[in-house]
Design a protein that fits this description.
Mean pLDDT: 75
Radius of gyration: 28 Å
Strand content: 5-15%
Number of strands: 8
Order of helices and strands: HHHHHHHHEEHEHHHEEEHHHHHEHHHHE
Number of helices: 21
Length: 436
């Protein structure tokens, strides 16, 4: 603590005591207005857009997404085009399961949002992408008969999660990491169209294939048809009898008739895992009759990282991300980046996971308020304006029951902090609206 601030702390404490902010009974909590209360107000002021937003938020908190959606739409029609109203409307769509509408609403709000708000909105969109994959998998299973009859998109390949056949649980995350690595490498071949790993993982989770341990060609073909893929890559990784070695094996299954079109295998020491994976991918492509250009071959030869432990952390991040644990995924990706700062895939996923974690822990948006140097005169009107913009129903009770802006405090704060701007000490203040 700076010596200047410590000398004046006693003065500040005395000032707080003088204003009644210490040793006093806290003011009673003010109950939030209920939808019924706000509907009564709406009957008197049916066209008040601020009131409509409050009512929509109350309905959202009560779990009545349809009513929240209708009221918030009415607020927008009445002229409330701010980001907060749009985000509340997106939350209503999420509550109703209308993920496409929620995504479109958040994307539209992002075009007029501040930098801090856009970060939160990007996080919501990341969470929505995961929800959409799960919804697509459920819909595919429900429409399995129709999808079985539909022809797959030519040259489309899905890579299912690999199966780890071993006892070292530290290596089990390779089921995700190797699948992602194979997707990345095959995607470097221009004539192939790769489905994202997350889509295949969502289907596997929906069908509960991981628990069943199914890796046969019939299961792979069924997964391919549900995903709309022409071919499916299935792989297993196992520990060899010689300590410290791993063996990789993979099949490419035709989704139409469950025929195995190509098989490949490679083995090497654990620390040379990437060499084995590259050899396997090149074998598969060769046995599928795909001729690679020199540029494609060089691209496939690229390693994501030289650090196996970084790749294992990355794989653990994928596993956590697949179950919606974005804070945990962010930590694992951070570990990977810390071990290898040049691990671009881990850095990219860490940034996305951080945004998704923030959006999942907070409401659809949190509004960052920048403190500016206070204008001359009493600051209470400025504080009241800020409060009314976020929590209008609480602005008056808060100001009535606190005396933090008394003349004594206002005089001492600049001297104690050595600045006229509170932002130098407090930085940004985030006002968080509780998530329904």
């Amino acid at each position: 603590m700076p010596a200047r601030a410590s000398r004046f702390l006693p003065m500040l404490c005395l000032a707080l005591l003088a204003t009644g902010c210490a040793g006093t009974t806290p003011p009673p909590a003010v109950a939030p207005a209920t939808p019924a209360d706000l509907e009564a107000e709406r009957a008197k002021h049916p066209d008040d857009p601020a009131l409509l937003v409050r009512l929509g938020e109350a309905y959202l908190g009560a779990g009545e997404g349809a009513k929240a959606r209708d009221v918030l739409r009415a607020a927008q029609a009445a002229g409330r085009t701010d980001v907060r109203t749009a985000v509340l409307l997106g939350g209503a769509y999420e509550q109703l399961g209308a993920l496409d509408s929620a995504r479109a609403t958040y994307a539209a709000a992002a075009t007029r949002a501040s930098k801090a708000e856009r970060a939160q909105l990007d996080g919501r969109l990341e969470v929505l992408a995961r929800k959409a994959l799960q919804a697509d998998a459920q819909a595919a299973v429900a429409r399995e008969k129709a999808l079985t009859l539909a022809p797959p998109t030519p040259n489309t390949i899905a890579v299912l999660p690999w199966r780890y056949l071993g006892t070292n649980e530290d290596l089990r995350p390779l089921e995700r990491g190797l699948a992602q690595l194979v997707v990345t490498d095959l995607a470097k071949v221009q004539r192939l169209r790769l489905l994202e790993r997350e889509r295949a993982q969502a289907l596997v989770d929906e069908l509960r294939l991981t628990e069943a341990g199914r890796t046969d060609s019939v299961t792979g073909a069924r997964s391919g048809r549900l995903l709309g893929a022409a071919q499916v890559v299935q792989g297993v990784v196992r520990e060899e009898s010689q300590a410290g070695r791993l063996a990789l094996q993979a099949n490419v299954v035709d989704a139409k008739d469950a025929r195995v079109g190509a098989s490949a295998g490679a083995s090497d020491r654990l620390e040379r895992l990437f060499d084995a994976e590259k050899a396997l991918v090149l074998q598969l492509l060769d046995r599928l009759g795909i001729q690679l250009s020199p540029a494609e071959r060089r691209a496939i030869a690229e390693r994501p990282t030289a650090d196996l432990q970084a790749f294992l952390a990355y794989s653990r991040g994928l596993a956590r991300e697949d179950v919606g644990d974005f804070p945990g995924a962010s930590r694992e990706y951070g570990t990977a980046v810390q071990r290898d700062p040049g691990f671009r895939a881990a850095a990219s996923r860490q940034a996305a996971a951080q945004q998704a974690a923030a959006a999942g822990a907070l409401p659809p948006v949190a509004f960052a308020v920048q403190f500016a140097p206070p204008p001359p005169g009493p600051p209470t009107p400025l504080l009241q304006t800020g409060l009314q913009a976020v929590v209008p129903t609480l602005a008056y009770p808060v100001l009535q029951r606190t005396q933090l802006w008394s003349p004594v405090i206002r005089t001492l704060l600049p001297e104690v902090l050595g600045t006229d701007s509170p932002s130098s000490l407090f930085g940004d203040v985030t006002i968080t609206i509780p998530r329904p």
